[in-house]
Write a structure and sequence with these properties.
By secondary structure, this protein is α/β, with parallel strands linked by helices. It is 41% helix and 13% strand. An eight-stranded mixed β-sheet has the order 3-4-6-5-7-8-9-10, with helices on both faces. A two-stranded parallel sheet has the order 1-2. The chain starts with 12 loop residues before the first helix and ends with a helix.
Amino acid sequence: MPAGTAAGAVPETGALDALARALLDTASLTRVMPEPVRVAPAAPFPGGTSSARALLDRVTGALGLPELAVVPETGPLPAAELAVSRRLALRPPPGGTPAGDRLIDVARRALAAFPGRPVVVPAHDGTPLRCWAAGPEGAPAVAVASACGMPAGLAVKWMAALSSTHRVVTWESRGLFAGDGSGLGELKGHGLDVQGDDLLAVLDGFGMSEAHAMGLCGGAAIALSAAARSERITSLSLWHGDYELGSGAPKTAHQRDMESLLAMAARGRRQAAGMHRLMSRPPTLEALRPDIAHYLIHPYATPELLYRYGLLNGAIMSTDCRPLLTTGRPALVVTSAKDSTAHPAGSAYVAAHLPRAELRTLPEGDHLTAFDAGSELVGLARQFLYAVTTEDRKGT
């Protein structure tokens, strides 16, 4: 019996667990894309695509997820379906297609895995927000504002890193995520102020009177907006922030290109549909890390998502953040000299103009590694959170 295998267990359980977790991890895409989403196996199945489809049908059925179609090759797949295929890495399980109680156990473990199932919290205008919480109730609260339009999975490493000592909550951008078959719903508002209010609504939904706001990428602007609007934000950490600062700081070529793309997509659904056709080609995926590509491609997966993303992230990238740099709360501002996505000069400007900010410019790490919650970044975050928590206790 292999080391680590309990008596009575079957060797293929690990492979099935991994498949179930991957299916849940890609569910944000498969729930919003036209059905059936096509996937290609990473290895041949003895019975061909029909046996691969039988396996997927059993596992998606147990998880309550949309059915998937199986094609023999990744070549003809558009970028979003290719991203799902890569994340699933579908291979024949050593023990064959599961059945009965064994499959139910696999599904139960996957659904219970960190950070668990989402909780729907109403925004102040009634928009449903899909939220997650982890960590001990009653512990100091941290609200993670992740990059606009990205599934919660992109923030899970930060949730896991901080939830041993804090109650950590996060949410997904309004109007860009479907529930269990509920569709996208209406996009009632998209301004930066509205998205800042969403952070405060998440605190309301979990009964939190105050919190540290952690903003990553465009989430940094959302955290600033919430802090400028409410004293319930007791401190801030802003990681590789994407800011509009007028003449105060330059932008990277990526930021300028993204602003143009989002402005065009936000003009209307017809324009977004035309852009979506161009962006659906597989080369779009080549520069994206395969472990997170299915997150990054989510807001581009359908014409409607792209249109809404143009409105939401377009508002974040075009709203002047300089009037928001007024909060006297402690702030940690982190960037990297090697960030070619969000210009480090923007972070330097923000840190210089916030009354109580500390700037840390790291010599290594790009924009996406900020989401990896590496040991150095986690150490910085914990040190800052400990300092502000201690300061708050002394103040009381």
